[in-house]
Design goal:
alpha+beta, 4 helices, 110 residues, globular
Length: 110
């Protein structure tokens, strides 16, 4: 049976980001706890997120981006659960980033 996922744009709390970074630190070689704390704070304060979540709200993928200089977005963090890699999830999440930036540009020009 195939599990269902939802992709959405959202803000994430420092605590949720911090837990995510701790759990995925093997993938990113985060060297120190201080770096992890600082990066989690920076993301929570400044970034928006396109997330892939399971039906029970588990984080299965995330793209963090800064969209404050329109019409540009700076992608700063990408992660997908190991068992979902290679299935086009990042492409779908990045499309969410582009749609978000495009809709903000349309609002600004209207």
């Amino acid at each position: 049976m195939r599990e269902e996922y939802s992709i959405q744009i959202e803000l994430m709390s420092y605590d949720e980001i911090h837990v995510h970074l701790q759990e995925s630190s093997e993938d990113f070689s985060l060297r120190t706890e201080q770096f992890l704390n600082d990066y989690a704070h920076k993301l929570a304060t400044n970034a928006e997120f396109v997330t892939l979540r399971s039906k029970d709200d588990r984080l299965m993928g995330v793209v963090a981006f800064y969209g404050n200089v329109h019409p540009f977005a700076y992608v700063t963090h990408v992660w997908v659960a190991n068992f979902l890699r290679g299935g086009g999830i990042v492409e779908k999440c990045l499309n969410g980033v582009w749609r978000n930036v495009e809709s903000d540009v349309l609002k600004l020009s209207a």
